Amino acid sequence: MKEAKVRLYVEHPLGAGQSIPLDRDQAHYLFGVMRLALGDQILVFNGTEGEWRAEVVKAGKRAGILACVKQTKPLQMPPDLWLIFAPIKKARTDFIVEKAAEMGAARILPVTTHFTNSERIRQDRLQAHAVEAAEQCGGTYVPEVTDLQKLDRLLADWPKDRQLMFCDEAEVGSAKRLGTVAGEKWAILIGPEGGFSDAERTRLHAHAQTHVVSLGPRILRADTASVAAMTLWQQALGDWQ
Length: 241
Ligand code: SAH
Description:
Blueprint: E1 7-9, E2 19-22, H1 24-33, E3 41-45, E4 51-59, E5 64-73, E6 81-85, H2 90-103, E7 107-112, H3 123-137, E8 144-145, E9 149-150, H4 151-156, E10 162-167, E11 185-190, H5 198-206, E12 210-213, H6 222-237
Parallel strand pairs: 1-3, 6-7, 6-11, 7-8, 7-9, 10-11, 10-12
Antiparallel strand pairs: 2-5, 3-4, 4-5
Helix pairs in contact: 2-3, 2-6
The structure holds S-adenosyl-L-homocysteine.
């Protein structure tokens, strides 16, 4: 019997004795790819009810059923941190979403900016990347990936109680760092390859919740900058402490 090693995200309620029907893709993954059989155990989570050990009670090519046995982890919510970024090339955008989920973002928000490279995203694909990242990193929560929206719109409706760590390439080499700022709710903003426009910069500076930050003496690519910024934030204010 295989011990619970595989982790699977399911969109189904979890609880002792609960049976979880598997769809075609899940059955293919568990029985075709991972070669699990009747009686084998896996770990399942649904983003709201923690992680559970579950046993295979029916295994078929196109379907199957798991039975929930016991909770192995409670739900662990990440800090209330949003990652706002302008989509770049497909593989790099995928990377940003995957890493944001691993690094503990609560919400991932792609935005179009004045110099955005890519005007379209596949929200469903990006959400699937966030799910896979949560499966892989032991998380019990899956950050929502929102649809593409305009940065200008997001800033126009900016919530008063959310601080904004604005990573501005114009600050390259400056000493601007994230201090210890009070506030539970945060967002990190990373620009596209083309950087921010002067109009965007002026607008961002006008927000009382904006904290301008330098990411060091070199210009980082947006994917690197996303990971670096989340590391700095987690270290200073997040759940790494
Ligand atoms: N084309 C721009 C660079 C854009 S880098 C230029 O040459 O000036 C992509 C994004 O990463 C930036 O918009 C910013 O959000 C972030 N970034 C990269 N390096 C940074 C740094 N040293 N300090 C602050 N933000 C940085």
